[in-house]
Write a structure and sequence with these properties.
- The chain has 86 residues and is α+β, with helices and mostly antiparallel strands.
- The chain has one domain.
- Helices cover 38% and strands 29% of the residues.
- The protein has two helices and four strands.
- The chain starts with a strand and ends with a helix.
Length: 86
């Protein structure tokens, strides 16, 4: 069984971006308001599989401004660099 999570960048009614994180095995959905929240929730969901996550598929809704997507990509890149340094 492959453990695949889907992360969809969405915008709320006020125009703020958030990430909808879905465990495709259980169909459990978590709403993440920032990357710190995302990292905690993905760790919690991944712990159900012994920390093994095979893939995280990223996408964005059509109404999300490119600037919001770029902010999340940049923050995610920085977060991954910090993890790799540990």
């Amino acid at each position: 069984m492959s453990v695949i999570f889907e992360s969809v960048i969405k915008c709320n009614n006020l125009g703020f971006a958030y990430i909808e994180l879905t465990d495709t095995v259980t169909q459990k959905v978590e709403i993440c308001n920032d990357l710190e929240d995302f990292s905690k929730k993905i760790e919690e969901l991944g712990s159900e599989y012994g920390g093994r996550i095979d893939e995280v598929k990223w996408s964005a809704d059509k109404n999300v401004p490119q600037s919001e997507i770029d902010k999340i990509k940049l923050a995610m890149q920085k977060y991954q660099e910090e993890i790799e340094e540990k």
